[in-house]
Amino acid sequence: MPLVDIGCGLGYLVRWLAATNALGTDVELVGVDLDAALVGEADRLARAEGLTCRFVRGNAFDLPEAATVYVSTGVLHHFRGPALAEFFQAQASSPAYAFCHFDIAATPLAPIGAWIFHRARMRNPLGRHDGVVSARRAHSDGTLLRAAAVPGIRALLYEPRGTANPFCTTLRPVIGVRPQLEAPLRRALGRDARRIVGPEHLAETTR
Fold this sequence. Notes:
- By secondary structure, the chain is an alpha/beta fold.
- The protein has helices at residues 12-20, 36-48, 82-92, 110-121, 125-136, 141-148, 182-189, 200-205, and strands at residues 2-6, 28-33, 54-57, 69-73, 98-104, 154-158, 171-177, 196-197.
- It has an 8-stranded mixed β-sheet with strand order 3-2-1-4-5-7-6-8, sandwiched between helices.
- Helix 3 (82-92) links the parallel strand 4 (69-73) and strand 5 (98-104).
- The longest helix has 13 residues, at 36-48.
- It is globular, with a radius of gyration of 17 Å.
- The model is unreliable at 114-120 (pLDDT under 50).
């Protein structure tokens, strides 16, 4: 049961999941990135930490074994126009059961927060600039839900902008599940399921 992290970078998510065994031993953790240097360093860190996970350089959708679940962090805002819909379509066309992609929440405070964060954490001027630009490129709730609403996948958004505190929300996930899995997902989430909305939420907010 492979979980594939798209654009894994240094593999923070995959390494954390491996270190905490959060998903159990039957889940294979795989990080994929196009940057060979990042993949090499992620693999070195995993070996140094004694973690059971692996990292691959390449296209996450071209792996020999298809993912059961796709995840990513801070990747979606890099896809513009038709490329965003194509990204979700590739997952819907795969055997995967679900995806969960965290990206910057498009709030008025996001660029300001990104500027403060990157000034504090980044020494390189390019890194500081890139962080603010990324926040400005964040997709709106509507853009994400429309792009993710492809045949075969039920698109869901956790804590849409209108219901979330902009001071507390920096990242939020767009989730996709096979339609038959939505009900079990909501049951598993319990009361938190109220925070998840689908594309019909867009029509309600424009009335």
